[in-house]
Specification:
The complex is a heterodimer of chains A (372) and B (194). Chain A has 372 residues and is of the alpha+beta class. Chain A has 16 helices and eight strands. In chain A, the strands form three sheets. Chain A has a three-stranded antiparallel sheet with strand order 1-2-3. Chain A is globular, with a radius of gyration of 21 Å.
Chain lengths: 372, 194
């Protein structure tokens, strides 16, 4: 900042970053006002992937909206599935069998790891390192195979149902998941040796993209962005849902407030998710995976309710207003990247352009989730 | 670390006391297991900024802002009231009493329909979800902007303006955020059909 402040030329030009740009990971456009190599102003321009999911929620039945939930955050689709089914279960008072809750947690956490692996690969790719992406996708492939075997799809999942899950896990799932845990635990030290402790990566990330805790509060940032700024906040711990209270896991928090801190939070979260999956597999109860009496036409009583889950990018909230009919009266989606991106404009003022790209990567944006 | 339940109840009581200062239209505790939030507060638009200022001082962070279109709510209430009156008159007639004029002149909601703006606030140290509601007439929806207190509101208010056409007074730039730049429609209004 000081370098920028001392060397302002007063001559600026406008630079368009995106909407077609590899570093924006989708169709995000950022209008930059540049003073040489320094950013004077940055304004993200949204809406290129806007599909009006909230309106779609109002003109189809509660069941029919389920596939939409897998198409917002395509990297952590199961968290969106989970938030929506849990919201409707809360509104309509539907009980879920324990086995189904365990399977939900296992698959959601596997999906979280696969999401973090894509972020890891793409982030390092943004910074100029190509091979970590291939390593990460190699690991992710195991998760996708596992999830494909139970959910039937590899990316845009629609697996959970009101009152349970669509399909019980098969006999190959548990050994497969355990093999993945073992493999991933062996891979993590390699990732840290190869990437986290790489001097080039450290120089690119340390003290780049400072986001203070107060800034997080004013902008409503959550997830790894907040946890990289010393804020201990995770919906799984603070507002427990499903069967998360039964598992022993930590919330990684780093106090450096820079891109490296956000990087480390996500890397540690992979290990914590492995712990959760392992415990859930150990204690997986027998029983049905669907509640017995779930009405075909769900009609939650009049009134509104809110449900929040911890998605890979932060706190995901859904609010519904029901008028007692078979379609939602209103469905609000509070997506984490949207709130995390608002602070980009302020945070990258005075930053060098390549630093801003590193900073943007550390926010882990998924554009269809921002635009909805 | 996550704070315990007792602390939360105390904190909520403290916030309730602080919020009494803005004389809210209504304030009620909500059952978190059923509702997903802890405290529900309705204020008038004039008191909104002051209310949000209190939440800011108490250390809340902003979750989101959204709207709800209550088109037809007043008509439904009137219909319900009329049906009640009719039932009353019928019961009176059945009982052999002569219907009085007072029976038809029951209390009727005559106001215009409203748009509701819903603000969600929460805390990092212990989950305490406060839902703030503001109602504004549907034919001229205006609410003061809170973007001076919470910069995160800049986009949430723009989005709510996109979808509902609510004018956030004092917002520096209410241009379409998610809709096309020349959009002159508000898709989440209940009378929007395209």
């Amino acid at each position: 900042m000081s370098v920028f402040a001392q060397n302002q030329t007063g001559e600026t030009f406008v630079l368009n970053l995106g909407p077609q740009h590899p570093a924006t990971h989708g169709v995000l456009r950022v209008k930059l006002v540049m003073d040489g190599e320094y950013i004077q102003e940055a304004e993200p321009i949204l809406g290129y992937a806007h599909r009006m999911h909230e309106k779609m929620g109002e003109n189809r039945s509660w069941h029919q909206f389920l596939p939409n939930t897998g198409r917002m955050d395509y990297l952590h689709a199961l968290a969106y599935n989970l938030a929506y089914v849990s919201l409707v279960e809360r509104a309509a008072g539907i009980e879920v069998p324990e086995r189904a809750e365990y399977i939900r947690v296992i698959t959601t956490e596997l999906n979280r790891i696969s999401s973090h692996l894509v972020w890891f690969g793409a982030f390092v790719l943004d910074l100029g390192g190509f091979s970590p992406l291939l390593y990460a996708f190699d690991d992710r492939e195991m998760i996708l195979d596992l999830l494909e075997s139970v959910t039937g799809s590899r990316l845009t999942y629609c697996y959970f149902r009101f009152g349970g899950v669509y399909n019980d896990i098969d006999e190959n799932f548990e050994p497969g998941a355990r093999a993945f845990i073992k493999r991933m635990r062996e891979r993590m030290p390699m990732y840290h040796a190869l990437v986290s402790k790489n001097i080039i990566l450290m120089k690119r990330l340390q003290e780049v993209g400072p986001v203070s805790a107060d800034m997080c509060r004013k902008y409503g940032a959550t997830g790894p962005v907040a946890r990289g700024s010393g804020i201990n906040f995770d919906v799984r711990k603070h507002e427990p849902y499903s069967v998360y209270p039964e598992f022993d896991f930590d919330i990684p928090v780093y106090h450096e407030c820079d891109s490296m801190a956000r990087y480390m939070v996500r890397m540690d979260e992979i290990e914590q998710s492995l712990r959760i999956i392992e415990q859930a597999l150990d204690r997986l109860p027998e029983g049905p995976v669907m509640a017995e009496k779930v009405p075909k036409n769900i009609k939650p009583p009049k009134g509104d309710c809110y449900f929040a889950v911890e998605a890979a990018r932060g706190s995901l909230g859904m609010r519904t207003v029901s008028d007692g009919s078979t379609t939602p009266y209103r469905l609000k989606l509070r997506t984490p990247s949207f709130s995390n991106l608002i602070l980009f404009g302020e945070a990258c003022r005075g930053m060098l352009l390549p630093d801003a790209l590193a900073f943007m990567g550390s926010l882990d944006l998924v554009i269809p989730e921002i635009d909805r | 670390m996550a704070q315990g339940g007792g602390w939360l109840i105390m904190k909520r009581e403290e916030i309730r006391r602080a919020l009494k200062a803005v004389s809210p239209v209504s304030m009620a505790d909500a059952e978190h297991p059923n509702k997903g939030y802890h405290l529900e507060v309705t204020v008038t638009p004039e008191r909104l900024v002051q209310t949000v200022g209190i939440l800011d001082q108490e250390g809340f962070f902003i979750e989101t802002i959204t709207g709800v279109d209550w088109l037809g709510e007043k008509a439904a209430l009137n219909k319900e009231a009329a049906a009640k009156d009719a039932a009353k008159a019928k019961a009176a007639a059945d009982a052999g009493e002569t219907p009085t004029a007072a029976a038809d002149a029951g209390p009727k909601a005559q106001d215009d329909d409203v748009l509701e703006v819903v603000y969600d606030f929460n805390r990092y140290d212990a989950v305490c979800r406060v839902v703030l509601r503001v109602r504004t007439p549907r034919n001229k929806p205006r609410v003061p902007s809170i973007s001076g207190l919470y910069q995160g509101a800049l986009w949430h208010e723009r989005e709510t303006h996109d979808f509902f056409g609510i004018d956030f007074e004092g917002h520096p730039c209410l241009e379409p955020l998610l809709l096309p730049e020349d959009a002159d429609f508000h898709p989440l209004l209940k009378d929007f059909n395209k």
